[in-house]
């Protein structure tokens, strides 16, 4: 490949990745705002607390195993 073709291909990939990243971040922020605007969600809050508890348990278990 020629250097110009490589540069052009690299620019396309960079723009594509940047666009996908921006759209992903934007959609996550929009989803968060919709979540906040639609009121309290006790089932989702309980699920998140449960997942956090499991994650903390796994991290503590791993820390004790490493020693």
Give a description of the structure:
The structure is a single chain. This protein is an all-alpha fold and about 70 residues long. It has one domain. It is built from two helices and no strands. It has helices at about 5-35, 40-65. The termini are far apart.
Task: Give the rounded overall mean pLDDT.
Answer: 90
Largest sheet: none
Task: List low-confidence stretches.
Answer: none
Order of helices and strands: HH
- Label the structural class: mainly alpha
Number of strands: 0
Fraction of residues in helix: over 70%
Please state roughly what percent of the residues sit in beta strands, choosing from under 5%, 5-15%, 15-25%, 25-35%, 35-45% or over 45%: under 5%
Based on CA atoms alone, the radius of gyration comes out at 21 Å
Total helices: the number is: 2
**Tally of structural domains:** 1
Structure in a nutshell:
With 67 residues, the protein is an all-alpha fold.
List keywords for this structure.
single chain, 67 residues, mainly alpha, 90% helix
SSE arrangement:
Blueprint: H1 3-37, H2 42-66
